[in-house]
Amino acid sequence: MLQPPRVECYKEASVGTWPPRLPNLYETFTQRLRAVATIVRMPIVPCSGALMGRAETLVRSVFRTMSPTERLSFYAIRNPSSIIGRLLMILAGVRDVIAFDVYVDESDRVLGTTGLYRYKRDAEEAAWVAWFCVDPQARGRGIGQALIDHTVSRARAAGFKRVRLYTSTDPNESAAQRLYEKNGFMEVRRQGGLFGTTIFREKVLGDRA
Ligand SMILES: CC(C)(COP(=O)(O)OP(=O)(O)OC[C@H]1O[C@@H](n2cnc3c(N)ncnc32)[C@H](O)[C@@H]1OP(=O)(O)O)[C@@H](O)C(=O)NCCC(=O)NCCS
Fold this sequence. Notes:
209 residues, Aminopeptidase, 7 strands, binds coenzyme A
């Protein structure tokens, strides 16, 4: 009858691993680091490279009505120091784009966007929110709230006392009104225009979020 080669195995294991192998500390450390990075992976990242095209596609599909300067704004975001980029910003009265960030999933799909910029007219006082939206397929999961929290924190960290934005009475933007109210962006003014009624909102930043 065939016996299991227990003794052989034991010998091989003990003799073959002499001197005993130390755990590969580098490998262990890297594995742990990778696990931590996966857990704490920040889904909101600055938009650059390939993400920019995806972000623009999302913004264009969500905001179907855009003014000419809004339409061209992505060129200025991409090329802020080019002559055309500067010219576009001058035409729009924009001093600079402070941030343009995206919410990405684990496959780097852009699920949401948010931006922060300054107008020349109130640059010392307020930052303005831009291109805030979430992919229709990903709504209702807290992404919009995460993007708003992120944008407000960014404005606060940059030293602004107020965050302003304009939105509209377009039914496509009605969910945003509730989100803005909930987050302290109070309506300050309405203005009728060529592209419908614009609602201006403002949040005064206290010491805490
Ligand atoms: C507004 C928008 C960004 C919300 O994104 P979202 O990821 O679905 O938002 P969240 O899941 O984080 O929900 C946050 C809050 O938004 C509000 N909200 C979200 N979906 C809503 C809906 N269908 N109806 C009413 N309120 C809604 C709620 O107040 C919700 O909080 P609650 O769940 O505690 O009630 C998204 O609907 C959107 O992209 N809309 C079109 C673009 C737009 O209007 N942008 C702003 C224009 S300036």
